[in-house]
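Final paragraph of the annual report: two paired records, presented back to back.
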Amino acid sequence: MADETSNNEAVELVDGHVETVDVSHHPDPSIPDTDLSLADIERRRSHPAQWIVYLVALLFAVVVPYWFGRTLAVDHTQWVVAHMDMFTPRGVAFMTWIVTVATFTGLGLAVVESRSWLWRIVFCVGLAAEQFIGGVSLLKWDFWYSTYVVYGDAARMANAANLGIIAAGFGIAVYAVLWVGLLVTIRKESPLNVLTRSWASFILFFVIETAALLIVMFGGLLTTV
């Protein structure tokens, strides 16, 4: 029980003795008085105009680059072939794999670092690049028919580009299944719970993606399709 005095002191019972102790002043409030509700403050911080612009940019990144790449493949085939011949099939698969992995890495970091716009921009730019490559290489599940019709004997480069993208996509799918499985099966008090940490998640992601790339580059797929 304490009796507060005017000079910001209080009388308290300490170890069986009555003593007068100082009481700290309450700090000044860091948030100024306002008539706005918490919902109003959060709404102002959300910047809806920025999100609208970003969603429009994402839609643009999905549609326009793919259309432009497909137009180049169909209407300027020889020009595309001439520029693709500067690379090897493994080099093309590696580059498209990097673009796809970078795109989904940006997406993952945008979720983790939700307050930063950097990774959202990385995801948008990477998505546009991936869609452009997909358009040039006529990306779809049975792409080898389309690439042979358009590119003929030079289709191996477009096929390699598609395999790089698909390898990264399969890696992401395998990672998602394993990650969800770890979250469901591992208890919080288990020592294995360290595998669910964000840094462990990214290590697992890149290990799986590297394995998928090695299968494509050295598993004979580049010479099969």
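The closing record of the year follows.
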Amino acid sequence: MASFMIKVAGEGLVAPAHRLADSGPTTGYAIIYEVQNVPEGVPVEAVVQAFKGFQAPKDRYEVDYGELTAVG
């Protein structure tokens, strides 16, 4: 299983973050989320696309890939 770092900017842009980024709020208006348990072979672009339709939690910054795919 893989994990990807996803950045959600204050204006709503969702994009891959640097793999060494720390999860949580940044010094700007972005929040970095770590998407864990991504199956091998799933590209980061697919994770970003799934995250765009996901209501990200405000109290934690680690999200399981299963939560993204359960959104429908």
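The CA atoms of residues 29 and 50 lie 21 Å apart. This concludes the annual technical report; the extension proposal builds directly on these records.
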